[in-house]
Amino acid sequence: MQQILDIYSGKITNWKEVGGDDARLRVVTREEGDSSRGILVEFFPGFKDITVTSKAKTTFSDPETEETVLKSMSMC
Question: What is the CATH number of the domain that holds 47?
Answer without folding.
Answer: 3.40.190.10
